[in-house]
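Researcher: Structure prediction, please.
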Amino acid sequence: MGVIEHEIGHALGLWHEQSRPDALGYVTIERDFILPSYISDFLQRDDEIDTLGIPYDLGSVMHYGSTAFSVDQKSKTVVTRDSLYQQTIGQREKLSFYDVATINAAYCKDECKSEKTKCENGGYMRPSKCAECLCPDGLGGDKCEKNEAPKNAECGGILELTEEWKTLESPNYPDPGYEADQKCSWLLKAQKGKRVEIEFIEDFSFLCTSTCVDFVELKISDDLRNTGFRFCCYDKPETSFVSQTDTAIIIFRSQLSTDIGFKVQVKSTDAEPRTTIAPTIITTTMAPVTVDTPNVWADWGEWSMCSRTCGGCGIRSRVRSCRSKKCEGRRQEFGTCNLKACPVDKHCAKLLSNNRLCNGKVCTKNDIAISSCDAPQCCPPFVNVDGMCQSDQDAQHDELWLSI
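Model: Predicted structure follows.
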């Protein structure tokens, strides 16, 4: 459905999100790895796009994913400046809240001008029925004052937090785990003058894809309307997060598979906002610039830690410095890393056993998950080749270097 909505978005006048004039503040475009005939889809349209005051949205259905139109289907063509958004870009489930807001601002901005319906938490009056509110993802109720109603599960709610930890988890965590096509949201409210702290604990596992399809999303910025960080695969975030305000939203969504899911503990805190994992900082001692000859580069620095432990989704980087007055070339280099296939889902033995009882026929809702149990998982477009994640067009390279 999201692909159809993407194309309808174009018909209504929406450009690709990465073409917005402010895009380079949020993403880096790797032109060297884009198929030449598609370069124009990545160019910024400073004089052609009117953003209508709507903020940039890395969760827009109009945003390209990490490897969109890549020359080899695995080199990343779009790299998010905030690494926690790398698996958020490229979603094709549905129009985001800001996608809809952009269309409404363009075509229906004066429809509710004389109405007085008050919507909370960033919601606004529905142009076709001004007595109703359109709510950001994860919010619901008549005025967007509570969490969104759950889908196919008993979960979610409003949590009034204290300084004592409380826990919440995805449906049926950890065993038998969540099922396909479920959704839950939690509206977290800290004490007045405090913030929300969130920490992932215990087991963590989701269907692993380069753009998260099954995920847990944290909306912890001061703008609850925008898409938050989406986490999937097997790498549990190791640090806690602190919201910018006294309100945060956690969203769980499963579209395709079944897996363990997540568990977090939450509390009210006085800590400073902590919304992004601090990057690895490489420091070097620079020799004085004494060379007039151009293009004198220092040696490359150490590689940063890989952003993923398996599956082919990971990125690492290193930098070098120019030791002459002018240098041509790239000062930062990115590389894919940890191409070992991820381990098989812990639930596979049970799923396969149930499937055998059905004589190979689909008698459960887990048919998609069962098909993924035959081999370790790799992030698309990678495929598992003898335990390693490789592109189906190029199975000869163990590692690929990317540069900017």
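Model: Residues 119-278 form a domain with the Jelly Rolls fold (CATH 2.60.120.290).
Researcher: Thanks, that helps.
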